[in-house]
Write a structure and sequence with these properties.
The protein is of the alpha/beta class and 227 residues long. Helix content is 39%, strand content 14%. It contains eight helices and five strands; from the N terminus they run βαβαβαβααααβα. It has helices at residues 40-55, 71-83, 103-116, 133-137, 150-162, 175-179, 183-196, 211-218, and strands at 29-35, 60-66, 91-97, 122-129, 208-209. The chain has a five-stranded mixed beta sheet with strand order 2-1-3-4-5, with helices on both faces. α3 links the parallel β3 (91-97) and β4 (122-129). α7 crosses α8 (211-218). The N and C termini lie far apart (58 Å). Mean pLDDT is 89; it is low at 1-6 and 13-20.
Length: 227
């Protein structure tokens, strides 16, 4: 390639001018949320995706996939979906509960998310110990007792009734919209738990949840419109 400057006689020729009709299309930041559950989590995160995708489609795009499997199998499903998407994903959120699964599997899933992340795609282990209902419960108050997940339901029912809502159940309709006004409170409570669990593995963090990391990332797109 010649390093000589172009001739003045060539400057106005079509092949020397920039093509102004070729606008560079900036792709939105894509997120894949893969959940262990096929009811509660997809319903909750689906409401978030609907809101963001309808209002910020040129900036960010969310896809929700209810994997129906747990821990290590869930990570593998997420990885395969990334490999099968030619456009790729900027963020992959692997949402799973610890429940009664082997601690080694719970912790290894988080380790794989860290090890697999690269400059193009970042994997996030969004675990809840024991289950995602802990995240919902933190909207109503701070809880540091290591309770069995069965006890979450009655406490959630109490919280929902304080908002004039009915008894908690799986796939509770409109849960995201109902809890949204309490989001900042829930994030603060989850961060308190994270500080308490510093140095512990996911399986040792009883109770604990990383769901707040996902909500913090998306929070700029979740602000209620003012009229």
């Amino acid at each position: 390639m010649s390093l000589k400057p172009p001739k003045k006689s060539d400057m106005n020729k079509a092949w020397m001018t920039a093509r102004r009709d070729r606008a560079i299309k900036i792709q939105p930041e894509t997120h894949l949320i893969v959940t262990e559950g096929t009811q509660t989590e997809p319903a909750y995160f689906g409401a978030i995706a609907d809101r963001i995708n309808s209002q910020y489609r040129n900036k960010v795009h969310l896809e929700i996939y209810g994997g129906g499997v747990n821990t290590l199998s869930l990570f593998e499903k997420a990885r395969k979906r990334v490999a099968g998407n030619p456009n790729g994903y900027r963020h992959v959120w692997v949402v799973y509960d610890t429940d009664d699964f082997p601690p080694a599997h719970v912790d290894q899933t988080a380790e794989l998310c860290t090890a697999t992340s690269n400059e193009e795609t970042q994997y996030h282990a969004i675990w809840s110990n024991q289950c995602i209902e802990l995240w919902f419960l933190l909207h109503f108050g701070y809880m540091q007792s290591d309770l069995h997940r069965r006890e979450y339901w009655s406490k959630l029912t109490q919280g929902l009734k304080s908002l004039g809502a009915g008894e908690y159940r799986k796939n509770y309709p409109g849960l995201y919209e109902l809890l949204y006004p309490l989001l900042d409170f829930a994030i603060a409570n989850a961060k308190r738990l994270e500080k308490q669990n510093a140095g512990r593995t996911p399986s040792q963090s009883k109770p604990g949840t990383k769901v707040f990391q996902l909500l913090e990332k998306l929070k700029p797109y979740l602000k209620e419109e003012t009229t």
